[in-house]
Design goal:
CATH architecture: Alpha-Beta Barrel
Low-confidence stretches: 1-45
CATH class: Alpha Beta
Number of domains: 1
Radius of gyration: 24 Å
Number of helices: 9
Distance between the termini: 70 Å
Structural class: alpha/beta
CATH superfamily: Glycoside hydrolase/deacetylase
CATH topology: TIM Barrel
Helix content: 40-55%
Shape: globular
Order of helices and strands: HHEEEEHEHEHEHEHEHEEEH
Strand content: 15-25%
Length: about 280
């Protein structure tokens, strides 16, 4: 009889030990879950959409080339601000053949804040100022190679000579392109504060949203000029991301208001070994 009791006692002790082993990682997972930002509220998202976008732990950082363009024009020497259509096409072909897939800044923020999935090799193609040549020469090539781009518009330049029109922007948005703000008048923001800074940052956002009928949630600093106060102003205005021209490819949730970027030649030269 005592032998039976002993075996039962051993069995119970073994079961308890196993339960404790299992409970330890479960407690760790629960603690980790408490530290994560909350997932989207299921009550505000259609059931099918919510189930199709499972929530995952967010990565600490993402390595992604965020490329910056200004002019896409023929018969011009290449430089920091200029690329020919032929040169731009070669860059897009290289990115496509190397397995890169374009995403938006919102998708980048979703990945870092909520763990939304990204393609294996994500890239963001961004265009500053809203020059008409971007629509004429850049946009068709983006479509040809299956890429999307983010176009940072200076609200005071829209519908002016050499810059895009509202109709052109609407055409690109209908094709999946994204619009961001590049301020109201393209000043050096580092020298501003108070009402003037708010007008350039928040005012341009409000104007574009009212004029285009869309939400604007990404900003690019004119000339790459910013301070801690300017970055704080983008957050206060409701932008999820703000792009600089600081050279780099690593983005974390902590620097979404000062996202680094890079020109294609520098990206190719410095990071080709990792491709």
């Amino acid at each position: 009889m005592s032998a039976v009791v002993s075996r039962k006692a051993v069995s119970r002790r073994a079961a308890l030990a196993a339960a404790l082993v299992l409970a330890s990682p479960l407690r760790a997972l629960a603690a980790e879950a408490d530290r994560r930002p909350p997932p989207p509220d299921a009550s505000t998202v259609p059931a099918a959409e919510f189930e199709a976008q499972p929530w995952h732990p967010a990565p600490p950082a993402v390595d992604i080339p965020i490329l910056v363009y200004h002019h896409v024009v023929p018969d011009h020497s290449p430089g920091a601000l200029y690329v020919t259509p032929d040169g731009f096409e070669q860059q897009l072909k290289y990115l496509r053949d190397s397995g890169y897939r374009s995403i938006s800044f919102s998708e980048l923020a979703d990945a870092l804040e909520y763990g939304a999935p990204l393609p294996e090799r994500p890239v963001i193609l961004s265009f500053d100022d809203g020059w008409e040549n971007q629509f004429q020469h850049g946009f068709p090539l983006l479509q040809k190679y299956g890429f999307t781009g983010t176009f940072y518009i200076v609200s005071g330049y829209l519908d002016h000579q050499n810059f895009m029109t509202t109709d052109q922007l609407n055409t690109m948005m209908a094709a999946g392109m994204v619009v961001g703000s590049h301020s109201r008048t393209h000043p050096v923001l580092a020298g501003f504060g108070g009402a003037r800074l708010k007008d350039e940052v928040a005012g341009s956002k409000a104007w574009l949203e009212d004029h285009l009928g869309i939400a604007i949630d990404t900003f690019a600093y004119p000339y790459g000029s910013y301070t801690a106060a300017v970055a704080a102003a983008t957050k206060a205005a409701g932008y999820r991301t703000a792009r600089t021209v600081d050279i780099g490819t690593r983005v974390s949730a902590d620097n979404l208001a000062t996202v680094p970027a890079i020109l294609f030649p520098a990206f190719l030269g410095r990071y080709r070994a990792t491709l």
